[in-house]
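Data deposition worksheet. Section B asks for the primary sequence of the deposited chain exactly as it was used as input, without tags or linkers unless they were present during the calculation. Section C holds the resulting structure in token form. Section D is free text for depositor observations; keep each observation to a single sentence. Incomplete worksheets are returned to the depositor.
Section A, Depositor: J.P.
Section B:
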Amino acid sequence: MNLHQQKSLSLIRELAARFFRDQTSTKSLVTVTNCLPSRDGKKVTILITVLPEKFEAEALFFARRHRTELREFIKTHSRLQILPFFEVELDLIEKGWNLADKVKDNGKKLEKK
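Section C:
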């Protein structure tokens, strides 16, 4: 991945985070963790995490439903010449890391007792 692609993905990640911050409700926190481009560059998958976890399905449904508004938001707030199409998925890798941290923290608490 060249420098131009890295900068474009970074800009898309920042603008997507701003869009979800402004558009989502206050009952859940949607965080954009990463952006993954397709091989041909025509599609970018935006990875999100949602807290609390019980609102994941609702937030993912919201994010997928508002992809066209997200694309328009990014188009108006950036100077990208080729704007890819967006997919939104949950970041399962980040979720796995959080679960591993919880298990590690619980193990430390048990050792202290």
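Section D:
The domain at 3-112 is CATH 3.30.300.20 (GMP Synthetase; Chain A, domain 3).
The mean pLDDT is 89.
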